Amino acid sequence: MVGMNVMRVFTITGSNPALLNCSSRILSSPVKSTKLGCLKTSTCSYTTSSHPFGKLLFRQLFEKESSTYTYLLADVTHPQKPALLIDPVDKTVERDLSLVKELGLKLIYAMNTHVHADHVTGTGIIKSKVPGVHSVISKASKSKADLLIEAGDKIYFGDLFLEVRPTPGHTLGCVTYVTGDGPNQPQPRMAFTGDALLIRGCGRTDFQGGSSQELYKSIFSLPKNTLIYPAHDYKGFTVSTVGEEMLYNPRLTKDQDTFKHIMENLNLPYPKMIDVAVPANMVCGLQDLSSKPVEAASN
Amino acid sequence: MVGMNVMRVFTITGSNPALLNCSSRILSSPVKSTKLGCLKTSTCSYTTSSHPFGKLLFRQLFEKESSTYTYLLADVTHPQKPALLIDPVDKTVERDLSLVKELGLKLIYAMNTHVHADHVTGTGIIKSKVPGVHSVISKASKSKADLLIEAGDKIYFGDLFLEVRPTPGHTLGCVTYVTGDGPNQPQPRMAFTGDALLIRGCGRTDFQGGSSQELYKSIFSLPKNTLIYPAHDYKGFTVSTVGEEMLYNPRLTKDQDTFKHIMENLNLPYPKMIDVAVPANMVCGLQDLSSKPVEAASN
């Protein structure tokens, strides 16, 4: 599987999904209580109709130390409930896998938007703990992973899929994963931008082959109403939209020369985790796990 | 307005909302770039069709020091885009009001689920900065606010509304705000539970008139598929569901006696902010603002 390049990478297509319906209780009395025991015996799945994104189950998860967002996506109408994690962090793998288990999901991909410099990806640990999970990163990142994706690739999980859009600038190999377009796909679309586009900001462009010119050109090629889910936020925002960032992003609303000047004069300190994180993330977090029984350890 | 008790509290009903449509560009080339200038001149509003909750614009915001979530809700199809904030924090008021302004919203309510003991509410500062905003808290909290709400009250913002459901236990006056039921209301419903129900946890019950018995009885009277948005999370979760908590909440899945025993033996330290936060929050954060030109300063 190492270095495999794919246009369609997941074979569970799961037509004719059976969407279960929960019968919601609308209480006339706001403090009417129900015994816990009978609620637990209900046969209604807690994952159905429990999310505003249609058949997509979606969870945004936060790692406080590095202010990193990890995203869990699953097709809960598919019998196997195939799921993927975007940008998992090593320190929160237990939390993420516990949630995957509780929700009854089958994790099939552990994906990275790019080679992170501020934390170690959880991909390697996940692969060691969950047989069958495949690591995913862009070919342009020059990293090792089970699946090396490129522009236009579609990553299927059940009937849902993510499109791959290169958004270089922060690093040469940055990609944005965008939910698919179509009647069964979530609307509005959702973009997992990594560090390329942050809420009211963007990733630094002075390391790892970054280029402010490339970032500037690539960043607004997404549809305007796309929901932006970045890899980090330091001010407590959880989501934005492309259109909102077009109007209010303090860097990317500048003309291209001004933007380039800003990015070249940020005078940011050397990233404290870069010398640990980048070597680890170039092999999808498998560097410390080589002596352990890791699936696809040939990475 | 002080102490006013209401069943319907907002008069802008805004029928016949004009839902603008954005024409999304679906790019065949994933790296096709668009000049920023022409994008900025678009007349398409960035708030329309940019959220998965129908006419509800919804933002979850995080205050890192106290791990508090603040929620911004607005009816963006109403001409005035009326909005409310649930559980704002004093330290992040500038961020919240800046977002309200950027999104073109009209803030009408600053609401609290209860008298917080771990941070000072932002309600007072908001009232001093935005004329016309009304503070909201439960009558049972015995606090001062412009609107003292009770069980069954509906708080309208445009065509959307929140229902008030008492969920005492953490404090005597805790309420949960639940989005309305109906064809124009967001589905699934969303519950802003304060500290009554946390994700895989619940608020402590050893201060401020708390009662583990009351919390236990009240907590699962919400519909099972209701999305849970708590006032805090310390592990990086952002949302859950009532059904999920019924299955996996480590405290609330216990029988009532065991739950009571757990809550009585948590041996938690005295809350470090309680002596500052509670007196301030009993007057909705207006304690330091009495000498300033605050609207409704008679609170």
UniProtKB/TrEMBL annotation, chains A, B:
Task: Identify the taxonomic lineage of the organism of origin.
Answer: Eukaryota, Viridiplantae, Streptophyta, Embryophyta, Tracheophyta
Q: Which is a GO BP term held by this UniProt record? A: hydrogen sulfide metabolic process
Question: What reaction does this catalyse?
Answer: S-sulfanylglutathione + O2 + H2O = sulfite + glutathione + 2 H(+)
- Is the Lipid biosynthesis keyword given for this protein? no
GO CC annotation: mitochondrion
**UniProt keywords, alphabetically:** Acetylation, Dioxygenase, Iron, Metal-binding, Mitochondrion, Oxidoreductase, Transit peptide
Q: Where in the cell is it found?
A: Mitochondrion
The UniProt family comment states: Belongs to the metallo-beta-lactamase superfamily. Glyoxalase II family.
Name the record gives this protein = persulfide dioxygenase
Question: What EC number(s) does its UniProt record assign?
Answer: 1.13.11.18
Q: Which CDD domains match?
A: POD-like_MBL-fold
Record-linked InterPro entries: Metallo-B-lactamas, Mito_Persulfide_Diox, POD-like_MBL-fold, RibonucZ/Hydroxyglut_hydro
Which PANTHER family does the entry mention?
A: PERSULFIDE DIOXYGENASE ETHE1 (PTHR43084), PERSULFIDE DIOXYGENASE ETHE1, MITOCHONDRIAL (PTHR43084:SF1)
